[in-house]
Amino acid sequence: MTSPAPQIHPTSEPVRLPERAAIVDLAAIRHNVGVLAKVAAPARVMAVVKADGYGHGAVPVARAALAAGASWLGVAHISEGLALRAAGIEAPILAWLHTPDSNFSAAVAAGIDLGCSGWELERIVAAAREQERPARVHLKIDTGLGRNGATADRWDSLVGEAVEYQDEGLLRVVGVFSHLAVADEPQRPETDEQLAAFRDAVALAEDAGCDLEVRHIANSPAVFSRPDAHFDLVRTGISVYGLSPFAGQSAADLGLRPAMTLRATLSQAKRVPAEHGVSYGLLYKTPGESTLGLVPLGYADGVPRVSDRGPVRIAGETYRVAGRVAMDQIVVDLGPDADPDAFAGAEAVLFGSGEEGGPTAEDWARAAQTISYEIVTRISPRVPRFYVGEDA
């Protein structure tokens, strides 16, 4: 985990941002969780804050999400859950991705719920014995995604083994869960097949003696597209951060507000002649005499190297990256009429809320032929996080 990021607090004095910054709007996080809670009701909301809150900062996002009505927090790794506990967060936390080296004892001691696909069961029980405290377990069924989770032919025996340990007081099976593969493509039939398999798995667990607190399979797209997948709890990741999980719908279409703005201060603006090459490989040359602007963000900061036409907003106009993205910097062609002096120290926004036509993480995802999840999550710790909207 990275060290806590600096924060912007409401003040009457103007705050000068550093040359690079990822600004996270916690009011947007709260708004998005409120939207999700309304759509998912009566199911409860788990805000997924793995990967340092999808690059936004796990602890600030977790606190904002809980304040807005989220009941649970979700992480991939136990270490991420322990960091939340160390920050004083007491809400229910589920961690679901483990290896034999995962610290199950620390998780049990910290009251972190554990996803279990089968192989982890003996290690979880050993941790419970060591801590003299029953573990809270969510059994995972692989309904078709093919990642972790017990397969259908193993499910009966896993449930039976878990119930035996439950009878011994070593654990409690408090949940059954799975994960959807194509909920972002609502027309595909595989989601129906997964939901049918999930219902069968839940019924078997309940018949075997599991008194389940939560049954959960819905991810962000399923919250909006499959109300029949909500069950008791929905696990919301990308939508918490105000980004759409659908290729054909924007965040605004879903009532969501992007929470992160990535910006920098131009480090240089200069006039160059026609046919002047730009960046490695000289793949771009100025069509005529022009002004080039240098933005101090590159692939070491998380800007995808392949996005050589990514949008950058400067002084109310959107420009495109000219030439290859370098490790520390990108170049934009500001055009033949741009006065270098007028652009000295100007703010360059790579993505943000999209208001007034500004670029979004989705725009960068299209430029890089990837998804918005990757764009925000990959912003590196070298870019300081600043927080606004704490008291909004």
UniProtKB/TrEMBL annotation:
It is an enzyme of class 5 (isomerase). The keyword Isomerase applies. The gene is alr. This is Alanine racemase. It catalyses: L-alanine = D-alanine. Its cofactor is pyridoxal 5'-phosphate. Coiled coil: none annotated. InterPro entries: Ala_racemase (IPR000821), Ala_racemase/Decarboxylase_C (IPR009006), Ala_racemase_C (IPR011079), Ala_racemase_N (IPR001608), Ala_racemase_pyridoxalP-BS (IPR020622), PLP-binding_barrel (IPR029066). Keywords: Isomerase, Pyridoxal phosphate. Gene3D superfamilies: Alanine racemase, Lyase, Ornithine Decarboxylase, Chain A, domain 1. The keyword Cell membrane does not apply. It comes from the Bacteria. Residues 259-388 form the Alanine racemase C-terminal domain. The active site is at residues 50, 280. One of its GO terms (molecular function) is alanine racemase activity. Pathway: Amino-acid biosynthesis; D-alanine biosynthesis; D-alanine from L-alanine: step 1/1. SUPFAM superfamilies: Alanine racemase C-terminal domain-like (SSF50621), PLP-binding barrel (SSF51419). Catalyzes the interconversion of L-alanine and D-alanine. May also act on other amino acids. The modification N6-(pyridoxal phosphate)lysine is found at residue 50. Substrate binds at residues 147, 327. It holds the Pfam family Ala_racemase_N. Belongs to the alanine racemase family. Its EC number is 5.1.1.1.
